[in-house]
Amino acid sequence: MSTVQLFRTGDTPLPDVIILTHKLTREYDMGSELVRALRGVSVQIQKNEYVAVMGPSGSGKSTLMNLIGCLDTPTSGEYWLNGQKVSDLADDELARIRNKEIGFVFQTFNLLPRADALHNVELPLIYAGLSARNRRERAAHALQRVGLGDRMDHKPNELSGGQRQRVAIARALVNEPSILLADEPTGNLDSTTSSEIMDVFRELHHQGQTVVMVTHEQDIAAHAARVITLRDGLVATDQARAA
Amino acid sequence: MPFYEAFRLAIQTIRAQKLKSSFSLLGVFVGVSSLIASCSIANGVDRYMTEKFAQTLYGVNTFQLRRQPMFVPNVPDSVWRAWRRRPRIRFSDADAITKGLTVPVITAWQSSDQVTVTFANKEARDIELTAASERYFDIKNLDIVIGRPFTGEENRSGVPVAVLGDAVSKRLFADRPPLGRSVRIGGVPYRVIGVVAHQGSLMGFPLDRFVVVPALSPAQNLVNPPGILDAFLVKAHSDLEMREAMSQAEGIMRSRRHLRPKQDNNFVLDTSEGIQRFWAGISNILNTVIPGIVVVSLVIGGIVIMNIMLMAVAERTREIGLRKSLGARRRDVLRQFLAESTAIAAVGAVLGIIAGIGLTLLINKLSPLPASVSPTSVVFGALMGAGVGIVFGVYPATRAARLDPIAALRQE
Ligand SMILES: Nc1ncnc2c1ncn2[C@@H]1O[C@H](COP(=O)(O)OP(=O)(O)O)[C@@H](O)[C@H]1O
Ligand SMILES: [Mg+2]
After folding, report:
1. Do B345 and B386 touch, CB atoms closer than 8 A?
2. Fewer C-beta neighbours within 10 Å, C or N terminus of chain B?
3. Residue A110 contacts B, CB cutoff 8 Å
4. pLDDT digits (tens, 9 = 90+) for A121-179
5. CB-based contacts of B1-8 (< 8 A; 24+ apart in sequence)
6. How far apart, in whole angstroms, are the C-alpha atoms of residue B323 and residue A182?
7. CA quadruple B325, B330, B332, B333: dihedral sign
8. Which residue in B has a C-alpha nearest to residue A131's C-alpha?
9. In which band, very low, low, confident or very high, does the pLDDT at A4 lie, cut at 50, 70 and 90?
């Protein structure tokens, strides 16, 4: 990428930069030993990029995604999201950012088993304070976008793995987030279903959605225009590809 | 998240977790209903004692001049013997007091003993014969349903007429009209002129087994030696006037008995206060011990609820993590659990109130205990039960709400 700015502490990111991490670290104090999951990760991701994060197991991919998704807080370093420094925000402000700015798709779907697809997709809108009618409309629309318009009243256990992940994607999209994060979204799916899910992501990217995705598989990463590789909690490679 | 959303969510969750919800509900329910029922028993016995028992025994704003108190719980023998050595109350004492009082009062003589009353070949045994003056009916609030009371004239002339208690009338006459018939009391024929309304019983004592006759009629010999009274009854309009009358009567009696200032009264001016004071002691115990036991059991119930909720929270930590990851703030999570336990506690409390009142009515009906719903116990029980349910329901959630979303999501 041409517009990468060399970021120093005290700077603010350029306007197009949605995600900027600067020397981000995350350590786990396990009592007997200190696990250094991230040891200073600096990346910048711009609007409408499609980025794949790769690397061996235990290299810190999930840790990085959790930090970017504001599900976790860094030990040190800076994290800027959409021009706002979020690395030192308080709990409630992080909750607001998770609600408004971030759509997160987990490997294990993380749906509420008791609730049907529509209610699962509605959840973020409840915390956004939308009225019930408004919520239902938007949730239904999001489910249609992922091709589940006819499965809205199904509980997760009445859906296939691929359908569950679509519900999770619809839930991630329903608040129109700035970024869509996915941590191995096809890790629990067979290869046919995986490629269907990847098609959904690719389609969303075409519609203008910024996507950051962790994956193990080269052919899935091939969908992405850019691949960041982690090794031992550090960025090993960061390559743009011809789309 | 607004409160009504939290409640909608709560209802969904309660429906989904029926067993856990019903356990919490049961805890609140049992606590509230037993608190209300037990307070109601204490309250009912209390009201019964202070209102009905004391009033029936003594009458409202009424004192009795007696040789010794009527109601004497646990007096030592020596005191009892001293009482028995006191001079008795005489007709002349009653007259002197009646003349001496400046407070408006109504008064009555009273002497009683157990006798047998007969009519033809029928017998009523162990009947309390009261030889009284005409205002006795007013002071004792006796409601005459058939016939009339005797008059002052009849009393003074000692006309042998009788007013029967309900049980005596039924026993002797069954369904026949009693008025004008002649019953025998101690061999003397008495004409029945009135019957008192059915009163039932008081703490197991039958209240309808009595006959009232004029104090100066022939049967006076059956109850006391000539010129002697068991009690002289004085009823004033108010408590204040009663106290004034009492102090005047005390002065009159002391001077009649030539008591020096240092000497104690050798008579009593007995009111329902003594029995009420005695009762207050018992009722204090009842009113603190019983609710105390229930409160303890409520707290234990609360701890059970808390454990259930702790388990529920542990199970639901993933849910809390997920909700937080989707933008729920700590207070949203707390609100959800607050709504949940409030809904459970409220339903439990309402059912508990209904059951508590039902239980009270049942106890009242099926047992000799005169239970009566005490409104404070309903309020207290509901607040207590609901409070326990809510506090012990919300506390566990405060821990889960504090976790980082990812930490909560990671828990199995
Ligand atoms: N909650 C945690 N407590 C302790 N160590 C952790 C925790 N989460 C991750 N780690 C450690 O941090 C390192 C990176 O983990 P992770 O980010 O999950 O790797 P990846 O997703 O690339 O497989 C690993 O060594 C892992 O054991
Ligand atoms: Mg991982």
Report:
1. yes
2. C
3. yes
4. 999 999 999 999 999 999 999 999 999 999 999 999 999 999 999 999 999 999 999 99
5. B1/A126, B1/A127, B1/A129, B1/B328, B1/B332, B1/B335, B1/B336, B2/A129, B3/B335, B3/B339, B5/A126, B6/B332, B6/B335, B6/B336, B6/B338, B6/B339, B7/B339, B7/B343
6. 17
7. positive
8. B5
9. low
With contact defined as beta carbons under 8 Å apart, do B206 and B167 qualify? yes
Which residues on adjacent β-strands are paired with residue A22? A78
Sheet holding A50-54, edge to edge: A102-105, A179-183, A210-214, A50-54, A226-231, A234-240
A68 lines ligand 1 (CB under 6 A): no
Chain B nearest-CA distance from A79, in A, is 17
Chain A residue closest in CA terms to B408: A71
Highest-pLDDT range among A11-20, A210-219, B221-230, B398-407:
B221-230
The residue of chain A nearest to residue B405, with distances taken between CA atoms, is: A71
Q: What is the pLDDT of residue A1?
A: 46
Residue A157 DSSP symbol: G
Contacts of A60 (CB under 8 A, 6+ apart): A26, A37, A38, A41, A230, A232, A233
ipTM of the complex model: 0.93
The type of residue at B178 is P
Most B CBs within 10 Å: which of A28, A63, A66, A92, as the mutation test of the B interface? A66
Entry pTM:
0.67
So where are chain A's domains?
A: 48-72+90-240
Q: CB contacts < 8 Å between A and B, how many?
A: 65
Residue B17 CB partners (closer than 8 Å, separation 6+): B312
Q: What is the pLDDT of residue A5?
A: 65
Contacts of B326 in chain A (CB under 8 A): 98-99, 123-124, 127, 171
CA of A29 to the centre of ligand 1 (A): 12
Min Cα distance B324 → chain A (Å) is 7
What is the pLDDT, as a whole number, of residue B123?
92
Rounded to 5 degrees, what are φ and ψ at B123?
-130, 135
Q: Which amino acid, residue B157?
A: S
Is there an atom of ligand 1 within 6 Å of A66 CB?
Answer: no
A113 touches chain B (CB under 8 A): no
**Dist. CA A59 → ligand 2 center (Å):** 8
Higher pLDDT, A19 or B1: A19
A182 and A212 Cβ atoms separated by less than 8 Å? yes
Q: Determine the pLDDT at residue B341.
A: 82
Query: E-assigned strands of B253-319?
Result: 268-270
Cα-based torsion angle of the residue sequence A194, A195, A198, A203 in order, rounded to the nearest 10 degrees: -140
State if residue A161 touches ligand 1 by the CB under 6 angstroms criterion. Answer: no
Contact B405 A92 (CB under 8 A): no
A215 reaches B (C-beta below 8 A): no
Whether A98 and A81 have beta carbons less than 8 Å apart is answered as: no
Instruction: Report the CATH superfamily, name and number, of domain A48-72+90-240.
Output: P-loop containing nucleotide triphosphate hydrolases (3.40.50.300)
Closest to A91 (Cβ–Cβ): which among B318, B322, B330?
B330
What does the pLDDT look like over B325-376, one tens digit per residue? 999 999 898 888 888 888 888 888 899 899 989 988 888 787 666 777 878 8
Backbone angles phi, psi at B89, to 5 degrees: -85, 130
B12 Cβ contact list (under 8 Å, min separation 6): A114, A115
Closest residue on chain A to B14 (Cα): A114
| Residue, of A231 and A7, whose pLDDT is higher | A231
